[in-house]
Amino acid sequence: MIFQFNLEGEHLNSYPYARKIGFIEGTLQIYIDRQLFYEDIYANVYELAQQLAKWLLKLENGEVVDFLYTCIDSEEHLLQFHLQGDRVQVYAPYEEQAFEPLPIETVKQAVLKYCINLHIALTRIGYKYHLEDELKQLVSENKWALILFESNHYDEAFAIIEKRAKKAPSVESLNNFAYLLLHEEEDYERAWNVLQQLLPRQPQSDFPYLMLGELALRFKRYQEAKTYLQQALDFQVSEPVMHNIGIAHFHLGEYEQAAQAFSQCAGDSGMVQLYEVMSWLRAGQMEKAKSLLDHFNEQADDFIGTSEMADVYMELGYFSEAHALFAKEWNDYYTMPYSVSRYAYTLWQLGEYDACQQMLQQAILTKQEEIADEKLSEIDEHWSEQDCAERIEELQQELVELQSLTGCLAKGFIPPFEFELYTTGGCQLFGCPLHGHPEYEELVK
After folding, report:
1. C-alpha to C-alpha distance for 46 and 19, rounded to whole angstroms
2. What are the residues whose beta carbons fall under 8 Å from the beta carbon of 194, sequence distance 6 or more?
3. Which DSSP state fits 201?
4. What is the pLDDT of residues 70-122, one digit of tens each?
5. What is the C-alpha to C-alpha distance for residues 321 and 327, in angstroms, rounded to an integer?
6. Region 33-46 average pLDDT
7. First CA to last CA across the chain, in angstroms?
8. Are 244 and 424 in contact (CB under 8 A)?
9. Which positions ≥6 away from 387 have C-beta within 8 Å?
10. Do 143 and 439 contact (CB within 8 A), yes or no?
C-alpha cells in the first residue's frame, strides 16, 4: 500500500493565501498491489493526514477502531479502513475496484510514511499547519530528528542527534552522528573518531563501514579503506561501496579490480564510466579502454562531457578523435590554460600548426579581454579591491602561460593529464524517512 501526493499544479496555486490560513489541496493517489485504488485531484491532503495520524495513535494506545475519513466537502466517508482481526479491509464508496484485506502492519506503515512525507513537504513550503504533535508520539526520537533534518531544520536535528550519541551511545546514535559530521559538517577527524567508538559494538550493517571506507579514502589510507569497504560488502553489495572500493583499488595500482568494481556501478557515459575507462587504460588494456570510450552516449543524462572524453583519447594516443571532441565544446573552454594546452598539443601532434597558432591567438585575445573587463569591475561589499587585484593577477598568470605555450610545444612539452577520482557517499542514516532505511533495532531483529 502506497500513498502518493502532489502539491504542485495550477489548481493548487490559485489561492494565494492557502499556506497562511491553513487550506491546501493536492492530488492524492493510493495504490494497493501496484494498482491504483483511490484518486482525488482536489484532496485536502492535510486534513486526511491529520485524521490518519490520530487513528494511528488510537491503535498504538490499544484502541481497536475503524478509520472513517470525515471530509468537510462530503457527507460520505470517502475512505474507510475496517479492522478484521490482524487485517484491514480498505474501502472507498466511489471506487469500484475491490481488494483482499491487507495486513494491519502494512496499512499502518503506509499511513505513517504518508504522514511523515506530507509533514516534511508542508514544512518545506512554509504551510501554516504540520503534523508535529502527532508524529512526535508515533516515532522514535531518532526518527523525529531525521524528520527535522529532511524538513530543513538542521540545527535542531543536529542537536538531538549529538545529544543522543553522547548520552546514550549505541550503534544507531553513533552512526547517525558520524554521518552528519561527515556529510554535513565535513568534520572528518571527528566523524572518524565517533565511528571508532562504534566499532567495538560490532555493528551488523554496512553503514559504518561505508563511512569509514570513505573517510580512509579522504585520508589517502587506501589499504585501510579497502579493508573497511570489504567489510561493508559482507553485508550487501551497493553502488557506493563498489564505487569507493574501485577508487581504493585504483590508488593501490590494482587497475583491473578497479575497472571491475566501477563496471558494477549504474550510469550511462558518466564520471564512473570514465573511471572504468581509465582503469583499463592504466591496466594496459588499451583496446578495451578505447572500445568503452567509443560507446559513450552524448545524449545520456549523466554524460561526462566531450572535453573530458577528448582528454582520455589523448592519453590513448587517438588524436583525431580527441580533436573532434575538443572542437565541439571549444567556445566554453578556450580560455582555460589546461584545456587550451591539451587541445594545442592535440593539434601539434596532428601537424596542424597553423590551426594551433590560430586557436592560441584566439585564446590569448580572449584572456586579454577578461583582464580588461576585470579592471573595470565594480567594487562593492561582495567584491573588494583585494579580490579584484588577486583575480587580475591570476588572469595575468594564465595569459603568460598561454603566450609561452607555442615555444613549449616546439621544445617537446607534453601537457600533463589531470585526473581525479571522487568518492561517493549515499545515505547511511538508520531510520531515514526519505530512503526508507529501518532503524537499527528493527534491522537486527
Report:
1. 11
2. 165, 174, 177, 178, 181
3. G
4. 887 767 888 999 999 999 999 988 777 778 999 999 999 999 999 999 999 99
5. 10
6. 89
7. 23
8. yes
9. none
10. yes
Cα–Cα distance, 181 to 407 (Å, whole number): 49
**52-56, 356-360, 378-382: least confidently modelled range:** 378-382
In contact, 157 and 148? CB cutoff 8 Å: yes
Q: Which residues, at least 6 apart from 146, have a Cβ–Cβ distance to it below 8 Å?
A: 157, 176, 429, 431, 432, 433
Residue 28 CB neighbours (<10 A): 22
Q: What is the three-state SS of 390-420?
A: HHHHHHHHHHHHHHHHHHHHHCCCCCCCCCC
For position 333, what pLDDT does the model report? 58
Cα 87 from chain centroid (whole Å)? 37
DSSP state, residue 204: S
Instruction: Please give the Cα distance from 232 to 212 (Å, whole number).
Output: 10
* pTM exceeds 0.70: yes
Cβ contacts of 285-293, under 8 Å, gap ≥ 24 = 285/256, 286/316, 289/316, 290/316, 290/318
Angstrom distance (rounded) from CA 43 to CA 332? 48
List of long-range contacts for 183-192, beta carbons under 8 Å, 24+ apart: 183/425, 184/154, 184/158, 185/158, 188/215, 188/218, 188/219, 191/215, 192/219
Alpha helices in 206-336 (DSSP H): 207-218, 222-233, 239-251, 255-262, 271-282, 286-294, 306-316, 319-328, 330-333
Strand, helix or coil for residue 16: coil
Cell numbers at residue 277, please? 575507462
Find out whether 3 and 39 touch, Cβ atoms under 8 Å: no
Q: How far is CA 150 from the centre of its chain?
A: 13
- Who's near 29: CB < 8 A, 6+ residues apart? 3, 4, 5, 36, 38, 39
Length of the chain: 445
- Between strands 35-43 and 67-70, the pairing is unpaired
Alpha-carbon distance of 445 to 347, in angstroms, equals 64
Q: Which of 136, 153, 190 is nearest to 177 (CA)?
A: 190
Helix (H, G, I), strand (E, B) or coil at 291: helix
Place of cell 581509465: 278
Three-state DSSP at 88 gives strand
Read off the DSSP letter of residue 100.
Answer: P
CB 414 within 8 A of CB 273: no
